[in-house]
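Researcher: Re-running this chain for the archive, since the previous output was lost when a drive failed. Same request as before.
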Amino acid sequence: MKKVIVIGCPGSGKSTFSIALHNKTGLPLYHLDMINWNPDKTTVPKEVFLERLTSILQKDEWIIDGNYGSTMEMRLKECDTVFFLDYPVEVCLEGLASRKGKTRPDMPWIERTDETDWEFLAFVKNYNSESRPKVLHLLDKYAGKEVYFFKSRSEVDEFLKRL
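Model: Regenerated structure tokens:
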């Protein structure tokens, strides 16, 4: 396990798991949100994002946390290990609610408790029916990878204890 991606529905705890994995393995950790977003909630130009990601992918070791469907295949080609936090939507919605108002190392801003991004919320609610099948298709396409599916937070905790 040298090149790792951590994927799953927003709110599943990808960043929390990635940080714990980084602490256990010492592998360098990169959050896609940090290379894509500016503190003012604008995105960097697509070329800049792709340059940053390509630079990371060329390194010998890494953990990359995040979905970003447009670059999922690019990351799957290069990784040796995939962790898919494959949780029910309710768990992810709880995760989203719990992080509001908190400073996070994976985001360049604090999500305000009085704001709701309805488009993002709809994406999360539809993740298992719309995005998940695409992810599963790509995982089938790159079947030679070590893939871990976690169905609950307790499964993640048990894995980290054993690591």
